Amino acid sequence: MQASESKYKKLPKWAKKPLDNCLDYLENLLLMVDVSSKSIHVVRMHKSLLDLVTTHWFIPNMQTTSKRDLKMLKELKTITEQTEEIAKNSKRKDIKDLLLLKGMAIVLTWGALETFVIDFLKAWLNNAPDAWKADEIVNLKIRLGEFMQIDKELRCDYVVDQLDKLVNGPPRQGIGRFESLLKIFNLYGSIDDDIKDRLYEMSKIRNAFVHNKGIADKKFVDSCPSLKCKIGDQVINKNTDILRYVDSVLVYLAEIQLRIFERLGVPREELKGSPAMNIRYGKYEEAKKQRINLPEKK
Fold first, then answer.
1. Which residues of 216-241 are buried (b: 16+ CB within 10 A; e: fewer)?
2. CA neighbor of 46 nearest in space, from 76, 6, 7, 14
3. More confident: 59 or 193
């Protein structure tokens, strides 16, 4: 942890763990996307590079090439044959523009956000006794006998799952599902329209990949006019910037973190200059090195 961060308040471990898990996951996901995209480019160049080595180095020097070099030449030819098909496949349109990779990244990033909200609320119920006083929980229709038979460690999971159904969770678009759940525990708040719009787009792209192979249908076209897709188009194209969506997720995570602080009695004014405040209010360049380390880690 940087010395400059030590003056800022820290979340309790139970509240911080779901956030850490989400951010670690996103860090690994972005690394995977970066490595995979670069690997595809390397594969495309591999055969040409091997042909160049064998043609301009080994062949002209066949008379003076040692047995060891001849063995290496044989191995290079075998590798060339093996990579030829891979290189050919890597030039297919969907891989060429990394469409599938981008789509997978958006699906997994949205899943990480979804998991964070659900896991955090379970932790909140388990560690904040007054959370059980929420009207939606008090009025929740459950069979007491059935509830008492559930293992104590799983009761919070059961309640959050029931609340998710109550607010019509998964069918809701964008962050509507998350905000409805957070509102139950007085963790509701405002978020910039541009961030909200990006997260809405992201949820629709996610649904298109999960349910329609990443192809735009009429429902998608009508719901996301800003993406300018036509029916039958890929919802992801070579110009799609997935970091734009990841940044929006990070801003939303920072906003939720600040709301948690407020519910724990720490006003935002005391967090000015912290990584969460920098990310939440758009100081991306200042927070660039701190994005993945949003919560201060020991």
1. beeebbeebeebebeeebbbbeeebe
2. 76
3. 193
* pLDDT per residue as tens digits for the range 231-241: 999 999 888 88
In sequence order, what are the residues at sequence separation of 6 or more whose Cβ sits closer than 8 angstroms to the Cβ of residue 165? none
Lowest mean pLDDT segment, chosen from 47-61, 165-179, 190-204, 274-288: 47-61
| CB neighbour burial string for 263-289, b if at least 16 within 10 angstroms, e if fewer | beebeeeebeebbbbbbbbeeeeebee
Sign for the pseudo-dihedral over CA of 77, 34, 226, 115 = positive
User: What does DSSP assign to residue 296?
Assistant: P
Q: For 180-202, how does the pLDDT look when each residue is reduced to its tens digit (9 = 90+)?
A: 999 999 999 999 999 999 999 99
Residue for token pair 């996901």: 29
Rg (CA), the chain: 25
At 90, list the tokens. Answer: 């890597």
